[in-house]
Amino acid sequence: MKTKPKAVVLFSGGQDSATCLAQACADFGNDVVAVGFDYGQRHKIELEQAKILAELGGVSYRIIDLNFISQLTPNSLTDASIEIDHKEGELPSTFVPGRNLFFISVGAVIARQLGAPYLYIGICQTDYSGYPDCRDDFIKATQQTVNLAMETDLEIRTPLMWLTKAETVTLMADLGRLDWYKESHTCYEGSRPACGKCPACLLRLKGFEEAGISDPLSYQ
Fold this sequence. Notes:
37% of the residues lie in helices and 10% in strands. By secondary structure, it is an alpha/beta fold. Helix 1 (15-28) links the parallel strand 1 and strand 2 (32-38).
């Protein structure tokens, strides 16, 4: 890339990060770098789909190895032997402690190295599934921390923070990129076509139903 990119997008290849990439591209064209992470997740299909989506957006894409995350604590996203569930009053078994903290820290370093002033992440407090690292106060604190740590003035942008899943779908439609959702990956079971039954699939389908828009993704 000859010129400095304007933004780095933390990019999982899921519905929310695909919407986030579409927003970043609407803001800055293809002066965007998408960054994915191999953190020992139980399914690598999301990394493959992320590459396809980055190509659709005409942006560069790189994968950073963060496999150490899977060695820290047990959870159902990095250990296939743990059942995917969410019991009332408890964190979901899919919660990966520290994941977004690590992702943002690495993304901030990359943004600093590239000279990009903005870092996008598709987290959402409205439909956050109980994950504490998807809250607005976490982002504000982390932005201050990374800037103090590196003497930078990086702005972390969270365009989906206060949107419901239905509003996220509508935003993607307004951006003219609804077709990208066909290549996104949400299913916790790693299935393509998607299982349509896991918590992630059900939340996604609910959002499309409430938005009155058909999901272009294939389901079993």
